[in-house]
Amino acid sequence: MKEFIGNSIFFGVGISLLGYEIGLIVKKKWKLAIFNPLLISIIFVIGVLSICNIRYETYEEGAKYLSYLLTPATVCLAIPLYEQIELLKQHKKAIFIGIISGVVTSLFSVLVLCYLFQFTHEQYVTLLPKSITTAIGMDISKELGGIVTITVAVIIITGVLGNMIADTVCKVFRITHPVAKGIAIGTSAHVVGTAKALEMGEIEGAMSSLSIAVAGLLTVIGASIFANFM
Fold first, then answer.
1. What are the tens digits of pLDDT across the range 10-32?
2. What is the mean pLDDT of residues 178-205?
3. What is the pTM of this model?
4. Is 89 exposed, middle or buried (0-12, 13-18, 19+ CB in 10 A)?
5. How far apart are CA 153 and CA 143, in angstroms?
6. Which of 108, 146, 145 is nearest to 127 (CA)?
């Protein structure tokens, strides 16, 4: 069985999709934020690899084909943005001030926490790109001398948590304007958060899509500056 799995290039894709499908079923049945399909699929894959004693390299050989879809999927988020282009023009100042504030807050919070917990410089720069899409965050981490694999894990955790608590945070802080919701979610929780924003509405999804791109570019600049603070 293990040999069969090792020779199958689609094993990684298969269990990833199966785990996500299980997550969708669980989410649909219980409708609780904790039952996030992506989170469930991650736990499912880890469980399968551990129980079957399968090396990550074997899984990754097939799962890498899913990774190829990350960049085009991110680009496709431009479609809802194009559909809401007039709204973007109407609120352009508030939108860009909101994104800039979100990026600075993200970088500053990492700086403060790393000082409090006495992290090393390597650990610090590893965490700086936590709130942007993996495609950009990996390159930033590598360029600054961080641990790329941990950066990827932190980015995923940030996105999943953002997806899970987005509704609750908006209700607690009484954030009702769709533009404000989209900007907040996209700036803090990148693509995974944007999936939640799209569930909320077209405007939220469009603004969140814009935030991913702009926040990514600003973080490239901001992380290079903040990297010198510790």
1. 788 889 999 999 999 998 988 88
2. 91
3. 0.84
4. exposed
5. 17
6. 146
Task: Say which amino acid occupies 6.
Answer: G
Whole-angstrom distance, CA of residue 27 vs CA of residue 16:
16
Decide if 164 contacts 36 (C-beta within 8 A): yes
pLDDT of residue 195: 87
Spell out the domain ranges in the chain.
1-54, 70-227
Cα 140 to its chain centre, rounded Å, is: 15
Q: How far is 194 from 62, CA to CA, in rounded Å?
A: 26
Distance separating alpha carbons of residues 78 and 116, to the nearest angstrom: 39
Q: At what angle do helices 37-51 and 56-67 cross, to 10 degrees?
A: 150
Q: Where are the alpha helices (DSSP H) in 8-91?
A: 11-30, 37-51, 56-67, 70-76, 78-83, 85-90
Tell me: the pLDDT tens digits for 100-157? 999 999 999 999 999 999 999 999 999 999 999 888 899 999 999 999 989 999 999 9
